[in-house]
Design goal:
Order of helices and strands: HEEEHHEHEHHH
Mean pLDDT: 94
Number of helices: 7
Distance between the termini: 23 Å
Oligomer: single chain
Strand order of the largest sheet: 3-2-1-4-5
Strand content: 15-25%
């Protein structure tokens, strides 16, 4: 007897991958040499009808790792003072230990196989996370080593925009430019954008996809 797969399970929606929305703020563009300064993470879930929505969020200010480079132009852009004691910054090891723990719990909860990073211009965030994971010698990195979901590409397809603020507005989300380049705010907006795109595809009839006899 053929048992129909439940398409409204998160594990079935993205080929068993567990999508995790991430944004990082950094002190430059080089993930090997430049400091990671801030990271925010939002996990996702699906309701019983198959609509994707945000679930948990976690956010850390990060202490620059020993020997890291800090580019003045990057700080002028993101307006972060890495050495301000009021930041409450933690080490990369402390931050990623908690982040990876939460992600593994989600993977187990939803019967997924591996985490996959969702981000705007995702290659940038992915590279910094992989570099930090190697620095702290983590053996528990839950993320796919190279695959990502890039909302810049997805929003280019869905609404004809690739800039985060413009893509959000084009799909019907508000965007406050004064809060932009905060890891937590950008992650929340990216998560909302990703959910909107995925849910719009479902609403248009693109999910679930059933094979038809021709």
């Amino acid at each position: 007897m053929h048992i129909k797969k439940n398409e409204n399970l998160l594990s079935n929606r993205f080929r068993t991958f567990y999508p995790v929305v991430i944004d990082v703020e950094t002190a430059g563009f080089n993930p090997i040499t430049d400091a990671l300064l801030e990271i925010a993470v939002i996990t996702l879930t699906m309701n019983k009808k198959g609509w994707l929505k945000t679930e948990k969020k976690i956010h850390f200010h990060i202490k620059p790792f020993q020997g890291s480079l800090i580019k003045k132009e990057a700080l002028l852009f993101n307006k972060i003072d890495p050495f301000n004691p009021l930041r409450g910054a933690v080490s990369e090891k402390e931050a990623f230990k908690e982040i990876f723990s939460i992600i593994y719990k989600g993977i187990k909860k939803y019967d997924c196989s591996k985490g996959i990073i969702v981000a705007h211009n995702a290659n940038f965030d992915h590279n910094f996370i992989m570099a930090a994971s190697q620095r702290i010698q983590s053996k528990n990195n839950p993320f796919h080593p190279f695959a990502t979901f890039d909302t810049a590409t997805l929003s280019g397809l869905a609404v004809g925009q690739t800039v985060l603020s413009k893509a959000c507005r084009a799909i019907g989300l508000s965007f406050d430019n004064n809060q932009a380049h905060s890891a937590l705010y950008d992650t929340l907006q990216t998560a909302n954008l990703f959910c909107k795109i995925i849910n719009r595809w479902k609403k248009l009839g693109g999910w679930p996809i059933y094979k038809r006899n021709i």
